[in-house]
Amino acid sequence: MYKHLSREERYQIHSLLKAQQTISEIARLLGRHRSTISRELSRGRGQRGYRAEQACGKASERAQTSRNARRVDAKVWADVAFYLGLQWSPEQIAEKVAVSHECVYLHVYANKAAGGDLHKHLRSQKPRRKRRLCGRDRRGQIPNRRPISERPSHIEQRKQVGHWEGDTVIGAAHKQAIVTLVERKSGYAVLAKVNHKTADLVGRAIQAKLKPLRPRVKTLTVDNGKGFADHQTVDQTLGIQTYFADPYCSWQRGSNENFNGLLRQYIPKNRRMQTVTDGELTIIQNRLNHRPRKRLGFKTPHEVFHASLNRVALLP
After folding, report:
1. What are the Cα distances from residue 308, in Å, to 94, 102, 158?
2. How, if at all, do strands 45-46 and 241-244 pair?
3. pLDDT tens readout for residues 75-118
């Protein structure tokens, strides 16, 4: 059965186009038919090319004028407002409430135009522009760096729990940081705050957070930040292999990039990390791990990840 492209998928299309991927390759990565991607690019393109936010707006307009459009009860909108307050996405809400995710977006935008604040609960997903220097990484080289090209190809398919992605999220004035670690198949995440983004502190944080989950930690894929320079110690302690994504290819760590966007709902870029407590991080981690995800059949990351842990525990 055909399902409309989601908001997240449109942002993925935008990122992959910037990475100069072909329509066929984008279709393969998203698990969609080539004609679906081609039609989306044709419908969502504007004067400045394909932009995700613009494409989402055009899709909402098409849904609004569709002959299948219907009036929605006030009680339904009250439920929508409740789940938005929990920072659920419109797609997650649509699985729980009898309304489409496109209708939720239209309702939120109409509310904003009327002076309401529902839009403040939506995740901000503006694509980031990164500086490039002739395709070369301007940062220093990490010793014994293992490139993602050496990572087993089956990991890309997300069929097995145990393959993680890592990143650091910084706050205002680049003081302190949060280490984010996300399991690729389930989306389950763990968070740790570090006072400085040094390789030693980041490495220790990774070890402390992943050691209790060791039966389900096989690989880790990170970016080329110096905070991950102590990867050999992490590998030895946890018995895993760390891989490094290609420079300026954030889509190779899509799970982590998506999670970091969700985290920014709670900890915006202009907030100083000194104000973030360990207790607050635990609350955020639990809330996001217990939020249903469309790609998991609306199960939660916690459910999927811990089901795999339970299977390990039952083995002789």
Report:
1. 27, 33, 13
2. unpaired
3. 888 898 899 888 888 888 888 888 888 788 888 887 887 788 88
The whole-number pLDDT of residue 37 equals 92
223/253 Cα distance (integer angstroms): 8
Give the DSSP letter of residue 98.
S
- pLDDT value for 124: 55
Torsion of CA 305, 308, 313, 316, to 10 degrees: -160
- Whole-number Å distance between alpha carbons of 316 and 314: 6
Instruction: Using alpha carbons only, give the angle 110, 116, 120 rounded to the nearest 5 degrees.
Output: 95
- The H or E element containing residue 163 is strand 163-170
Round to the nearest angstrom and report the end-to-end CA distance of the chain. 41
Cα(8)–Cα(16) distance, integer angstroms: 12
Sheet holding 163-170, edge to edge: 189-194, 177-183, 163-170, 219-222, 241-244
Structure tokens, 252: 């190779």
Give pLDDT tens digits for 5-53. 887 788 889 888 888 889 998 988 888 999 999 999 988 888 888 988 8
Residue 178 C-beta-side C-alpha neighbours within 13 Å: 31
CA pair distance 103, 65, nearest whole angstrom? 11
Say if strands 219-222 and 163-170 run parallel, antiparallel, or are unpaired: parallel
